[in-house]
């Protein structure tokens, strides 16, 4: 049905946001096998919708569609409730979606004036639609996107306001400490060596291990160190779910002796240190055998402290801008651009590898940059008119203002440069890294973060200087993505990536890992589906950016700025909801 059958405020137990039980967006996304970075809740309001009813105002509903990456097919994700008789609805029912920074999630919001109880949308009047990406909503100021509704030629269809709110329950962590008293003695020559094992219960009644404490040697009255665990890991955000704690005596051979167990819940633990949080440790076997059995000791909660983890979205919502710069390898090893064998070949029918890499990464990052102006640089070419070699030239030919508008502007400047410069050499990365580092060094307050995309055929000439530049840049608010195109061996690039061995220069190690390298050839889709290739490439190169971003903010102790005050809709007549 349409969501017509019950008021939007009444939720079915166990359903999120009152939506019908529908697949989450991850279920039909070829790429979303990874754990969602976070969940966001989308709220939808409209202003000045078209009036399609003769004697009263429209009765609007909003239908959200998501787009599969491979075949571009739109699928219905969910519907809001219908609100009677209004052109300015604030829909109560929310859409809860998985959010991945590194994926482009295309969304379509369709609006209808509902004329009957039929769930078939063709039976209702179309009021228009709005297209955007999830990144566009999240990346807007205050994560609030306002856009015109389109789709009915010659008519003003009004505006839609979509607000994204990160769901908070999964972001808390708790810091807990336990001690025990008078545990059973299990060792022949000494006392026990106790440790605790925590399990969360699953929907089907089984248990999953979620934490082990350290072992405290030779005592029946241990005090364990405080430990931190996410609420999601401890109880999946369900405060009343059973948590089982087992107490063991550690043995060197791994055959640890079971002392006993007890159960609790997050809600009980959150009362903190009190008489409610002293637990009898029970060994069911002993209890069954011995009539006089009382317990195998007690475990006491000493402290319970909730910490809310700040997330990437908190900073974006607080106004942090992501500045995107591209640097393209114009060295002769790429081959003559007029030949089909060249990596820079301008094929009129499809993008070359450089173009694909630029578009794949740029189209996602541009959603987080409010002015959409990107510096685009080239290196390793001879420039007109005098043929001097440059390792950081503006693709648009204007060194004072190397900014291009949007990813389309970058592509245009790239193609124009190919026609005017002469591919030359050597392949030096350090100048473009230092170029971005100069800007990053001037804003270290967390208001801006810089991402440099270097697309190269990988034959690097200035390895020592590049390492030095990366080690220096690791202290700055910046990340470097390197996409290697062509058939070369990319051993040097793997070394710069620093995933296996942290990069160093003259005895100094990088403060944090800021480089992500991927070879483009790993993403060529054999079926020729370039859309899928580009989506996979973007997913892999961008997946590390939020964590690199957070590592900079954490090391510097920078907290997110408060988000702008939430949007308050203009007051209008209260609608009835059916």
From TrEMBL:
A GO CC annotation given for this chain: plasma membrane
SMART domains assigned to the protein according to its UniProt record, in alphabetical order: C2 (SM00239), VWA (SM00327)
CDD domains for this protein: C2A_Copine, C2B_Copine, vWA_copine_like
InterPro entries cross-referenced by the UniProt entry: C2_dom, C2_domain_sf, C2B_Copine, Copine, Copine_C, VWF_A, vWFA_dom_sf
Residues annotated as domain C2: 20-147, 156-279
Keyword Metal-binding attached: yes
Transmembrane residue ranges: none
Example GO molecular function: calcium-dependent phospholipid binding
One of the GO BP terms on file: cellular response to calcium ion
Region feature Disordered, mapped onto this chain: 1-20
Keywords of the record: Calcium, Metal-binding, Phosphoprotein, Repeat
Domain VWFA, residue spans: 323-524
Keyword Cell division: no
Function: Probable calcium-dependent phospholipid-binding protein that may play a role in calcium-mediated intracellular processes.
Sequence similarity: Belongs to the copine family.
Record protein name field: Copine-8
Organism this protein belongs to: Rhadina sibilatrix
